[in-house]
Amino acid sequence: MKPDELKARLQWSLEEKIEYSLEKIWEFYHYHSGNVIVSFSGGKDSSVLLWLVRKQFPDTKALFVNTRVEYPELVKFTLKTPNVSVIYPKYRFDKIIKNYGYPMVSKKVSRFVHDLQNPTVRNEKTRILRDTGYTKDGRSLPRYKIPKKWRFMVDSQFRFSDRCCVFLKEIPLHGMKTNAFVGTLANDSQRRLLGYLKHGCNWLGKRPRSMPLGFWTQNDVVRCIAENDIPVCDIYGDLVQTGDVYEFSKMQHTGCIFCGFGVQFEQRPNRFEKLRTTHPRLHGYAMRKLGIGDVLDFMQKNCNNKDLFNY
User: Fold this and answer.
1) Which helix (H) or strand (E) holds 240?
2) How many domains does the chain divide into?
3) How far apart are CA 67 and CA 165, in angstroms?
4) What's the CA gap between 37 and 33, in Å, rounded?
């Protein structure tokens, strides 16, 4: 898919988006003869996804991977949702950050830092690329070089990594032969954007998945909830409409509680500051027991903008 095509889809009306998403869901469902599941986290995006899928196929099963780093309200909401199975990862978040490092800034940056912090004979070429932006044979690939503003992370006392997502969310699904509907939006991250441009809504490759909300916006999601009375977790608060903009009164996003990916882009109060107010015990555990407070202090002291990593 070309970027202009995605740009055009993003401008569709909500009614057009719902109709097209239902069409893609129907195609994926029948291509796999109904052998599908809905990846359900209890968040607002996956709640809209589940509503869309069950609008046509009411008996479709949902699967919740309880990473143990979800908001307790989301876990309760998910377990109360009909026809949802629960699986647990083998590894816990505290062990993952101890063995591999903390998730901070973004998956890309944490992965690049991890490569440079863990030199081996086997990753020499990768480290050269991360360090210089050039391959060993001299080809220029600047997007694979660690950004200058985050280079200070490499020589720190802290280790960083993107492996928590792999161990908590990806590995538990390996071997399950799941043809999954996922509620991700292309605009959520650069990685998801590139994936959507490459595969579109339905990817029928080695690990098939359907991304029927790929061309939606966050405003589309909340508006769809408002106009169709779709049940969502009460952690979001009340629906608020200002003109054509739909938002929740409390939280707009609910990822893993202790994740640092993207926190530098959030308006104050950020996710950790909100956690201190809404879940003080979890905040204390994260900052002191897991050591995230020390990591955020380090990021704050070394970042050019001194007001990004508050907690």
Assistant:
1) strand 239-242
2) 3
3) 10
4) 12
The answer to the question of residue 158 being in a domain is no
The residues, any chain, with a CB within 8 Å of residue 249's CB and separated by 6 or more, are 236, 237, 238, 239, 240
Is position 246 within any domain? Answer: no
Containing 104, the helix (H) or strand (E) segment is: strand 104-105
Residue 110's region, left for phi above 0, alpha for psi from -120 to 50, else beta, is alpha
Q: Is 57 helix (H, G, I), strand (E, B) or coil?
A: coil
| Predicted confidence (pLDDT) at residue 102 exceeds the cutoff of 80 | yes
The verdict on residue 17 lying in a domain is yes
Contacts of 17 (CB under 8 A, 6+ apart): 9, 215, 216, 220
Query: Are residues 144 and 133 in contact, defined by beta-carbon separation less than 8 angstroms?
Result: yes
pLDDT tens-place string over residues 159-196:
999 999 999 998 888 877 789 999 999 988 777 888 88
In a domain, 241, yes or no: no
Query: Quick one: which of 81, 44, 48 has its CA closest to 64?
Result: 81
| Shared-domain flag, residues 124 and 270 | no
Q: Which of 217, 219, 239 is nearest to 229 (CA)?
A: 239
